[in-house]
Amino acid sequence: MEATGPLPHSPVLPEGRRGPHGPVRRPHRTGAPVALITGASSGIGAAVATRFAAEGGWRLLLNGRDEDRLGKVAARCDATPLPCDLGDPAGCGQLADAALDASGGVDVLVLGAGIGWAGPFATMPPAAIDEVLAVDLAAVVHLTRRLLPHIVRRNRGHLLFVGSIAGAVGVREEAVYSAAKAAVAAFAESLRYELAGTRVRVSVVVPGAVNTPFFARRGAPYQRSRPRPIAASRVADAVWEAVAHERSEVFVPGWLQLPARFQGLAPALFRRLATRFA
Protein backbone atom coordinates (compact mmCIF):
# COMPACT_ATOMS: atom_id res chain seq x y z
CA MET A 1 0.00 0.00 0.00
CA GLU A 2 1.49 3.32 -1.04
CA ALA A 3 1.57 6.10 1.55
CA THR A 4 -0.38 9.14 0.41
CA GLY A 5 0.13 11.52 3.34
CA PRO A 6 2.83 14.15 3.87
CA LEU A 7 6.29 13.00 2.80
CA PRO A 8 8.87 12.58 5.54
CA HIS A 9 11.35 14.76 3.61
CA SER A 10 8.93 17.50 2.63
CA PRO A 11 8.72 20.85 4.45
CA VAL A 12 5.32 19.73 5.81
CA LEU A 13 5.83 16.83 8.20
CA PRO A 14 3.05 14.95 9.98
CA GLU A 15 1.54 17.36 12.44
CA GLY A 16 1.08 16.57 16.12
CA ARG A 17 -1.33 18.54 18.25
CA ARG A 18 0.09 20.37 21.23
CA GLY A 19 -1.45 19.87 24.62
CA PRO A 20 -0.64 21.68 27.86
CA HIS A 21 2.12 19.18 28.59
CA GLY A 22 3.58 18.83 25.09
CA PRO A 23 2.71 16.83 21.97
CA VAL A 24 -0.38 14.65 21.94
CA ARG A 25 -0.10 11.50 19.85
CA ARG A 26 -2.85 10.91 17.32
CA PRO A 27 -4.16 7.52 16.20
CA HIS A 28 -2.57 6.08 13.06
CA ARG A 29 -4.23 7.30 9.91
CA THR A 30 -4.29 5.72 6.49
CA GLY A 31 -1.30 6.99 4.56
CA ALA A 32 0.76 7.93 7.62
CA PRO A 33 4.46 7.85 6.75
CA VAL A 34 6.33 4.85 8.13
CA ALA A 35 9.59 4.98 10.11
CA LEU A 36 11.59 1.83 10.82
CA ILE A 37 14.03 2.30 13.70
CA THR A 38 16.64 -0.33 14.55
CA GLY A 39 18.24 -0.71 17.95
CA ALA A 40 15.02 0.60 19.49
CA SER A 41 14.92 -1.60 22.58
CA SER A 42 17.15 0.80 24.51
CA GLY A 43 19.54 3.72 24.29
CA ILE A 44 19.59 5.96 21.24
CA GLY A 45 17.10 3.85 19.29
CA ALA A 46 14.52 3.98 22.08
CA ALA A 47 15.02 7.73 22.39
CA VAL A 48 14.52 8.17 18.64
CA ALA A 49 11.31 6.14 18.79
CA THR A 50 10.06 8.32 21.65
CA ARG A 51 10.92 11.49 19.71
CA PHE A 52 9.07 10.40 16.57
CA ALA A 53 6.08 9.25 18.63
CA ALA A 54 5.92 12.63 20.35
CA GLU A 55 5.72 14.40 17.00
CA GLY A 56 2.57 12.48 16.06
CA GLY A 57 1.37 11.28 12.69
CA TRP A 58 3.92 8.51 12.18
CA ARG A 59 3.51 4.77 11.93
CA LEU A 60 6.48 3.36 13.82
CA LEU A 61 8.13 -0.02 13.32
CA LEU A 62 10.69 -0.79 16.00
CA ASN A 63 13.45 -3.38 15.89
CA GLY A 64 15.61 -4.76 18.67
CA ARG A 65 16.88 -8.11 19.79
CA ASP A 66 15.64 -7.94 23.40
CA GLU A 67 12.00 -8.82 22.84
CA ASP A 68 10.82 -7.84 26.32
CA ARG A 69 12.44 -4.39 26.35
CA LEU A 70 11.39 -3.78 22.76
CA GLY A 71 7.79 -4.61 23.59
CA LYS A 72 7.77 -2.06 26.40
CA VAL A 73 9.18 0.69 24.18
CA ALA A 74 6.71 -0.19 21.42
CA ALA A 75 3.79 -0.05 23.85
CA ARG A 76 4.91 3.34 25.09
CA CYS A 77 5.26 4.68 21.55
CA ASP A 78 2.14 3.03 20.09
CA ALA A 79 4.46 1.21 17.67
CA THR A 80 4.78 -2.21 16.06
CA PRO A 81 7.65 -4.29 17.52
CA LEU A 82 9.68 -6.34 15.04
CA PRO A 83 12.21 -8.24 17.17
CA CYS A 84 15.16 -9.97 15.54
CA ASP A 85 18.91 -10.17 15.96
CA LEU A 86 20.71 -8.17 13.27
CA GLY A 87 23.91 -9.95 14.20
CA ASP A 88 22.40 -13.03 12.54
CA PRO A 89 23.00 -12.94 8.76
CA ALA A 90 19.37 -13.95 8.20
CA GLY A 91 18.07 -11.23 10.50
CA CYS A 92 18.23 -8.39 7.97
CA GLY A 93 16.11 -10.25 5.46
CA GLN A 94 13.63 -11.25 8.14
CA LEU A 95 13.32 -7.66 9.37
CA ALA A 96 12.96 -6.20 5.88
CA ASP A 97 10.23 -8.70 4.99
CA ALA A 98 8.43 -8.12 8.28
CA ALA A 99 8.56 -4.33 7.85
CA LEU A 100 7.17 -4.49 4.32
CA ASP A 101 4.48 -6.97 5.35
CA ALA A 102 3.46 -4.75 8.26
CA SER A 103 3.41 -1.43 6.41
CA GLY A 104 3.66 -1.91 2.65
CA GLY A 105 6.68 0.38 2.54
CA VAL A 106 9.18 2.34 4.63
CA ASP A 107 9.58 6.09 4.29
CA VAL A 108 12.27 6.71 6.92
CA LEU A 109 14.89 4.12 7.85
CA VAL A 110 16.82 4.97 11.03
CA LEU A 111 19.76 2.60 11.44
CA GLY A 112 20.61 2.92 15.10
CA ALA A 113 21.52 -0.61 16.19
CA GLY A 114 25.09 -0.92 17.36
CA ILE A 115 27.44 -2.71 19.74
CA GLY A 116 30.99 -2.04 20.88
CA TRP A 117 34.06 -3.73 22.30
CA ALA A 118 36.84 -1.94 24.17
CA GLY A 119 40.40 -3.06 24.69
CA PRO A 120 43.68 -3.53 22.80
CA PHE A 121 43.02 -4.88 19.34
CA ALA A 122 45.68 -7.57 19.79
CA THR A 123 43.57 -9.12 22.54
CA MET A 124 40.17 -8.81 20.83
CA PRO A 125 38.57 -12.24 20.40
CA PRO A 126 37.77 -13.17 16.79
CA ALA A 127 34.14 -13.74 17.74
CA ALA A 128 33.91 -10.17 19.06
CA ILE A 129 35.40 -8.83 15.81
CA ASP A 130 32.79 -10.71 13.82
CA GLU A 131 29.93 -9.53 16.03
CA VAL A 132 30.87 -5.84 15.92
CA LEU A 133 31.29 -5.91 12.15
CA ALA A 134 28.06 -7.87 11.72
CA VAL A 135 25.87 -5.50 13.74
CA ASP A 136 27.56 -2.15 13.14
CA LEU A 137 28.39 -2.54 9.45
CA ALA A 138 27.12 -5.64 7.66
CA ALA A 139 23.58 -5.31 9.02
CA VAL A 140 23.50 -1.63 8.01
CA VAL A 141 24.54 -2.46 4.46
CA HIS A 142 22.29 -5.50 4.05
CA LEU A 143 19.17 -3.92 5.55
CA THR A 144 19.64 -0.84 3.38
CA ARG A 145 20.11 -3.08 0.35
CA ARG A 146 16.86 -4.92 1.08
CA LEU A 147 14.75 -1.78 1.60
CA LEU A 148 16.34 0.81 -0.69
CA PRO A 149 14.85 -0.55 -3.96
CA HIS A 150 11.35 -0.17 -2.48
CA ILE A 151 12.14 3.36 -1.32
CA VAL A 152 13.58 4.34 -4.71
CA ARG A 153 10.54 2.97 -6.53
CA ARG A 154 8.37 5.22 -4.39
CA ASN A 155 10.83 8.06 -5.16
CA ARG A 156 10.72 9.45 -1.66
CA GLY A 157 12.17 8.70 1.72
CA HIS A 158 15.09 9.20 4.04
CA LEU A 159 18.00 7.02 5.14
CA LEU A 160 19.40 8.03 8.53
CA PHE A 161 22.63 6.43 9.74
CA VAL A 162 23.72 6.78 13.36
CA GLY A 163 27.49 7.09 13.19
CA SER A 164 30.04 7.97 15.87
CA ILE A 165 32.86 10.42 16.45
CA ALA A 166 34.98 7.26 16.71
CA GLY A 167 34.38 6.74 13.00
CA ALA A 168 35.42 10.32 12.21
CA VAL A 169 38.73 10.45 14.10
CA GLY A 170 39.48 6.92 15.37
CA VAL A 171 39.65 6.00 19.05
CA ARG A 172 42.34 4.06 20.87
CA GLU A 173 41.25 0.57 21.99
CA GLU A 174 38.10 0.76 19.86
CA ALA A 175 39.72 -0.06 16.54
CA VAL A 176 37.04 -2.33 15.05
CA TYR A 177 34.14 -0.18 16.24
CA SER A 178 35.86 2.90 14.81
CA ALA A 179 36.47 1.11 11.52
CA ALA A 180 32.84 0.01 11.27
CA LYS A 181 31.52 3.52 11.93
CA ALA A 182 33.97 5.05 9.45
CA ALA A 183 32.76 2.58 6.84
CA VAL A 184 29.14 3.52 7.56
CA ALA A 185 29.96 7.20 6.94
CA ALA A 186 31.64 6.33 3.62
CA PHE A 187 28.70 4.10 2.69
CA ALA A 188 26.28 6.96 3.34
CA GLU A 189 28.35 9.38 1.28
CA SER A 190 28.46 6.97 -1.64
CA LEU A 191 24.69 6.52 -1.49
CA ARG A 192 24.23 10.31 -1.65
CA TYR A 193 25.96 10.32 -5.03
CA GLU A 194 23.92 7.38 -6.28
CA LEU A 195 20.64 8.92 -5.14
CA ALA A 196 21.30 12.40 -6.48
CA GLY A 197 18.35 13.46 -8.61
CA THR A 198 15.88 11.38 -6.59
CA ARG A 199 13.73 12.42 -3.66
CA VAL A 200 15.54 10.04 -1.33
CA ARG A 201 17.70 11.79 1.24
CA VAL A 202 20.67 10.48 3.23
CA SER A 203 21.80 11.74 6.64
CA VAL A 204 24.45 10.77 9.18
CA VAL A 205 24.17 11.78 12.82
CA VAL A 206 27.57 11.70 14.56
CA PRO A 207 27.34 11.59 18.36
CA GLY A 208 30.13 11.52 20.87
CA ALA A 209 29.80 9.64 24.13
CA VAL A 210 26.15 9.03 25.00
CA ASN A 211 24.77 8.03 28.39
CA THR A 212 23.27 4.64 27.47
CA PRO A 213 23.88 0.97 28.40
CA PHE A 214 26.29 0.77 25.41
CA PHE A 215 29.41 1.11 27.56
CA ALA A 216 28.36 -1.51 30.10
CA ARG A 217 27.51 -3.95 27.35
CA ARG A 218 30.84 -3.49 25.57
CA GLY A 219 32.59 -4.69 28.73
CA ALA A 220 34.32 -1.44 29.76
CA PRO A 221 32.78 1.63 31.38
CA TYR A 222 33.34 5.12 30.00
CA GLN A 223 36.30 6.51 31.96
CA ARG A 224 37.28 9.73 30.19
CA SER A 225 36.72 12.95 32.11
CA ARG A 226 35.96 14.81 28.87
CA PRO A 227 33.82 14.93 26.88
CA ARG A 228 31.09 14.02 29.32
CA PRO A 229 28.40 11.68 27.98
CA ILE A 230 25.26 13.39 26.71
CA ALA A 231 21.66 12.23 27.04
CA ALA A 232 20.27 9.93 24.35
CA SER A 233 17.42 12.40 23.88
CA ARG A 234 19.88 14.92 22.42
CA VAL A 235 20.85 12.44 19.75
CA ALA A 236 17.18 11.71 19.10
CA ASP A 237 16.56 15.44 18.64
CA ALA A 238 19.42 15.55 16.12
CA VAL A 239 17.94 12.59 14.22
CA TRP A 240 14.59 14.32 14.05
CA GLU A 241 16.15 17.60 12.88
CA ALA A 242 18.16 15.78 10.21
CA VAL A 243 15.01 14.18 8.82
CA ALA A 244 12.79 17.25 9.19
CA HIS A 245 15.28 19.67 7.65
CA GLU A 246 17.17 17.34 5.30
CA ARG A 247 20.54 17.87 6.97
CA SER A 248 23.18 15.56 5.56
CA GLU A 249 25.45 15.50 8.63
CA VAL A 250 24.84 16.47 12.26
CA PHE A 251 27.41 16.26 15.06
CA VAL A 252 26.11 15.90 18.63
CA PRO A 253 27.20 18.02 20.40
CA GLY A 254 27.96 20.43 17.58
CA TRP A 255 31.50 21.25 18.68
CA LEU A 256 32.59 17.69 17.82
CA GLN A 257 32.79 18.72 14.18
CA LEU A 258 35.90 20.76 15.10
CA PRO A 259 38.21 17.80 15.89
CA ALA A 260 36.75 15.92 12.94
CA ARG A 261 37.55 18.79 10.56
CA PHE A 262 40.94 19.36 12.18
CA GLN A 263 41.85 15.70 11.72
CA GLY A 264 41.06 16.01 8.02
CA LEU A 265 43.03 19.22 7.55
CA ALA A 266 46.11 18.34 9.61
CA PRO A 267 46.14 14.58 10.25
CA ALA A 268 49.77 14.36 11.41
CA LEU A 269 49.37 17.13 13.99
CA PHE A 270 46.04 15.73 15.10
CA ARG A 271 47.60 12.30 15.68
CA ARG A 272 50.40 13.78 17.79
CA LEU A 273 47.92 15.69 19.95
CA ALA A 274 45.54 12.75 20.23
CA THR A 275 48.36 10.42 21.27
CA ARG A 276 49.53 12.86 23.92
CA PHE A 277 46.17 13.87 25.36
CA ALA A 278 44.16 10.70 24.59
From TrEMBL:
Keyword Oxidoreductase: yes
Keywords carried by this UniProt record: Oxidoreductase
UniProt biased composition (Basic residues): 19-29
Domain Ketoreductase: residue ranges: 33-213
Region (Disordered): 1-29
Family designation: Belongs to the short-chain dehydrogenases/reductases (SDR) family.
Designated name of the protein: SDR family NAD(P)-dependent oxidoreductase
UniProt source species: Streptomyces olivaceiscleroticus
